[in-house]
Amino acid sequence: MSENVIYKRVDDSRTETAHLIRPGHLNGANRLFGGILMQWIDEVAAVVAKRHSGANVTTASVDNLTFLKGAYQNDMVIIKGKVTWVGKTSMEICVDTYVESLDGERTRINNAHFMMIALDENDSPMEVPRLILETEDEKLAWEHGEERRKIRIKRKQDNLDGI
Length: 163
Ligand SMILES: CC(C)(COP(=O)(O)OP(=O)(O)OC[C@H]1O[C@@H](n2cnc3c(N)ncnc32)[C@H](O)[C@@H]1OP(=O)(O)O)[C@@H](O)C(=O)NCCC(=O)NCCS
Description:
With 163 residues, the protein is of the alpha+beta class. The chain has one domain: Thiol Ester Dehydrase, Chain A (Roll), CATH 3.10.129. It is 28% helix and 37% strand. It contains two helices and seven strands, in the order ββαβββββα. It has helices spanning 34-53, 136-161; strands at 7-9, 15-20, 56-67, 76-86, 90-100, 106-119, 130-132. The strands form two sheets. It has a five-stranded antiparallel beta sheet. β5 (90-100) and β6 (106-119) form a beta hairpin. The N and C termini lie far apart (42 Å). Bound molecules: coenzyme A. Residues 58-61, 87-90, 115, 117, 125, 152, 156 line the site of coenzyme A. Coenzyme A (COA) binds next to β3, β6 and α2.
């Protein structure tokens, strides 16, 4: 590893939050309102990215945001975020959301991949630490991140072209 380059582990920025679903979090169908969950998971992604980069961050895009199951009043919602891939100034953060039952069993209800960009004091993209991959799962997640990056590059060009 080069002396001038900063390296961080996935565990250095791993983040978990918990919420209890209250009446004010529900939509008209008495389920957790998707917009509330999106705010919670965006905040977790931002905390992971701030911890990894040591900088302010902004959300560039969100991939594969999937609502797998509903959640209901009084449910305990657990949100877990981790870095899966880094570019020069961008970080891919995987965020998984679970409902935890009273016996501790967790059922995944949402999954999303956030692209967060580190910003310097002028709000310009700045370089982020390299990622140390310690486990087979982390190496596999990185490979999947590389595949997602190729899709993102094409999608960004399509967006710019108005396709
Ligand atoms: C995200 C943003 C900073 C990128 O600025 P930019 O001028 O395109 O910067 P660059 O072209 O130098 O790209 C910087 C990095 O962002 C990545 N990026 C840019 N647009 C992206 C997109 N749509 N999806 C994923 N990554 C993206 C680039 O791949 C690059 O990553 P790398 O350095 O790891 O290779 C800029 O588009 C922005 O400020 N967007 C608004 C973000 C915001 O306000 N979010 C909150 C929404 S309410």
